[in-house]
Amino acid sequence: MTSTVPPAPENDRIPDRIPDRTPDASGRVGLAPGSVPDDPRFVNDDLLPVPLEQRRWTTYNFAALWVGMAHNIPSWLLASGLVALGMDWKQAVFTIALANVIVLAPMLLTGHAGPKYGIPFPVLARASFGLRGANLPALIRAAVACAWFGIQTWIGGVGIFTLLGKIFGGWADASRIGGQPWTLWLCFALFWALELAIIYRGMDTLRRFENWAAPFVIVGAVVLLVWIAVKAGGFGPLLDQPSELGWGKEFWPVFFPSLMGMIAFWSTLSLNIPDFTRFGAGQRAQLWGQSLGLPTTMTFFALLSVFVTSGSQAVYGAPIWDPVQLVAKTDNVFGLLFGLITVLIATISVNIAANVVSPAYDLANLAPKFISFRTGALITGIIGVLIMPWKLTETPELYIFTWLGLVGGMLGTVAGILIADYWIIRRTVLDLADLYRPGGRYWYTHGWNWRAVAAFAVGGVLAVGGSHSAPGKGPFPAEGLIPFLKPLADYGWAVGLASSLVLYTLLGLGLRPERESGPAVR
To answer: What is the rounded CA–CA span in Å between residue 495 and residue 270?
Structure first.
């Protein structure tokens, strides 16, 4: 690459600007030929804008991406967690549907920068947090993704272990290592390796995988529904089971934190969706692809899980929410193999897209000279093995209220800052070259924007400061970490997003929008 960026200044001197390419007919912007920044502290090939000619994902690609990500075992189990808390199936499906309509809004807002500028999430975060400060939200997002990667990989490994054990028999009786059969560890390791092998080949391989994985998983879920319906002769008593909460005063204290938990399920992607939309052929592709793919798919999948589970209650006398355990009930080898392949594809499609792509870019942003996209993916896989996040799914209380609530509050705070900076302060206009250039308008004070850090700190405290757990059921004190903030804890994602958005907007009113060239406001 041609060197166009001088050494990073530690003072207020602004080097000559590097021009952006003139926007094309669809408003997409790229770097002008011969003007590629090459400071290794802030640039590598994976972080640079996707060239205009390589931004070719269509509406179908984005819709297929969401279908592939939404159709997974944890998504299937969301309704069961809500039913376990006392909702009936209609309340559970309504909560899930509403949550995904709500989370779609920040998804589309942050996703806008992807097709327009071709940049991933950590580079977009530089506009608000600064070139160095962007590592703060990026590493938070990466940590969450690593935990989710561990959860999903373990769930996939257990699913493979269960179904192969049914086919071959005796797997559960194998000698134990660390309290688990060695055959389970083998399934976990093989599944882990398969995931990383796919993502190692790059984003275009992921696009092709999602294109055919999405319809395959839908077919698998429908086959499961037809099988249990025929076996049950109907859908069983679960559909007639009344709500334990009703629609009165007992319902709402459960509904709102549950809604925030369902929002938090995909709040991670509301931050790093530019990692995918940067490959979009235009705004229409990402807008319609996401709108058609996310809320409809999650609602459809929630309905499928309820109907299938209700049928299982009629057949086996008790509801079986876990689709792997349900498939394992059959003695048909073909059915078991089909179920095994479906579980494999469904879990891989969500895990590599939702939980490997983001930390791969986030870690590359931390040290571009040493960490590429592929190296970041490998680091994610290693961290996912070293931690044991499957403990989070043991109870609905811990999973929905503690884990998802805490994650949602923190990530909602970051989303509020990104949206305020990109849409309100800058009106979607960025100086593309300066996102990679020390000393430019996004350098702020030694690479950090104190406004974003302050908004993040205040919003984060308001969002999660009141986190509490029932006695003996979680890591937080019953009265809340900060007792007077306890009433806000059930609304963590909304509180974090709204408070950080308002505060950053107020603090950022003095920032100069990118309508003219010139030095950034310090």
So the answer is: 16
